[in-house]
Amino acid sequence: MSAEASSSGSVAPTPSQETSKVFNDPIHGHMEFHPFLVKIIDTPQFQRLRSLKQMGAAYFVYPGASHTRFEHSLGVAHLAGQLVRSLKENQPELGIDDRDVLCVQIAGLCHDLGHGPFSHLFDQEIIPKALEKKRQPDAQAKAQAKLMPKLMPKMMPKLMPKLMPNLMPKMMPKLMPKMMPNLMPKLMPSLMPNLMPKLMPNLMPKLMPNLMPNLMPNLMPKLKSGRTRKEYLNEENDGKDLAFIREMIFGPNDEGEYTGRPRDKAFLYEIISNKRNGIDVDKLDYFARDFYHLGIKNEYDHRRFITFARVCEVDGERQICTRDKELDNIYEVFHTRHCIHRKVCQHKTLKIIDHMITEALLEADGKLNFSKEIHDMEKYTELTDCVFEEILYSNDARLNKAKEILEKVVSRQLYKYLGKTKIDVKTEVTEDLIKEWKDELARMPTYKGEQKLQTTDFEIIETKFDFGMKDENPIENMHFYSKFEQEKAVKIPSEQASQFLLPRNFSEKWINVYCRKPDKKLQTVAYRHFYQWCHKKKFSIPPNPPHREPAEPQPKVFNDPIHGSMKFHPVLVKIIDTPEFQRLRFIKRLGAASFVYPGATHNCFEHSLGVAHLAGKLVRSLQEKQQELLIDEKDILCVEIAGLCCDLGHWPFSEEFDEAFLQKHFQTETKNIVCILHNVF
Length: 681
Fold this sequence. Notes:
By secondary structure, the protein is an alpha+beta fold. The protein contains 24 helices and 11 strands. Among the domains are: about 190 residues, Orthogonal Bundle (Hypothetical protein af1432); about 100 residues, Alpha-Beta Plaits (2-Layer Sandwich), CATH 3.30.70; about 120 residues, Hypothetical protein af1432 (Orthogonal Bundle).
């Protein structure tokens, strides 16, 4: 037997051989990927997704929501492969080949590569506001703009003789673009023969980067003709594949056309991002994955959709359809989506945390310049959720204001929630309208002796709920086939669905109102203002506002994917809200294991909550069953505190760091725990 043969008789692969790779996933089990997909996975751009949480800041509300876009993207690629292979095997007449399968999986793998920190918060809130902030002139500039027309006629005769020698060099670059269109036709014939030989060597290197994007659309049709195409652009299939992958993620080109695959394969575009009815493998994965990590039961089994998916011809176009008996389950898909948005994405606490993180990052943009990094792909690759920790632990004075906001987030000093009210779905909630509403809230009447509230003391955040297509029912764009006519697909009227599944409206809008002031008395006044304001505006009326805060601190409930609802004593809540304990959110429980098992993203924070919860259950069980042990409430609380604080002394990469580094500098880890506990108490 040769040296390359293993003991079992099989030949070990040489380093040059390309092999597929298997990932173990908590949702889909073993997922095997083509060698080409593995090469994409191993790039820095894809590995960056390990540092982007799938649900943004949701882990501040649901501790288990620490999963990342890395594992989600693997899951989408896996489901995309399952679906397209199922169609290929069951319907060979579709002409799906291995190249189509690979392209579909690549699109699934790469569909989230462009996401920034904190999921959709970055591209929908932070970046638009950062760019708008840079475009807006400051208050001084606005004041000058109003004053100058009045002052200039009086000032100019005296100032101009003194100013012109200094002004002209600065003014000319601004004036020239306006003057040149009129001057150039007259000047060019005489100037060009002498100027061009001198200008071209210096101008071209600067001009070409700006000219090429405008030139290429006109040049490419010419380049693709004749000998040029044969010599340089002969990889026709690769070009089509790249267009196909891009279109599966972003949709058709500006003309509304798909160019990557012919019309008879248009159904492939519905697999990753379904523009027709919204049912695609991206949603199927994040439904299953998000619910698992949130600890919420998922009623929909995504495997049924893959099993019953079939391509049928509808109005001369091939579409992915499903069995007629799946109608109720398809409605369940959209109820599942609504459930995630209502319970998590639009959660009142998460919305204000998102808002405060947005405020912090906008404050930090002047120093970190991430709004510029979106145009530099090399720098953008380095931009991840870690920007939160970079600001939180920074000693740079320029980040102090942003740091202060994030410290409030981790210590749970959030803006106080006053309530929510429903508004007309057609109302366009603009910045001007929010400003108007804040003014009205501040002007509500106050009692004698009460401090008046200001416009800036309120925050108003819009929340939207729909089935993914605004006020339309997406299932009206879905077609179904029957067991007896598998080649014919039809729409099923909503009347044939269970009326318990059908909402009266498919979209609605709410606004959440918060008070920025930490003072309890002012919060009570703000409660009353909000209640009166809803009456005046004839909005839906929230419950009567409380007259005072509860006298005693209240326990707090955390939802956990392992233990369900976990209720904690107020003393434990105080420990949880300390910076020392919140630090555990950033320390993975299994250290670097996530590089081998993508699902191993859970952290010491959620583990410590679970230990405290189980410790409490065990000691209470002993208290009830063996009363002679004389276990009292103080004993129970101390046991829970010990469980909660068991991992406080851990450092980066969990036990690995402790064993490899700390033992050389500290006699025992106990010293660290004692020091931190002293600070906590």
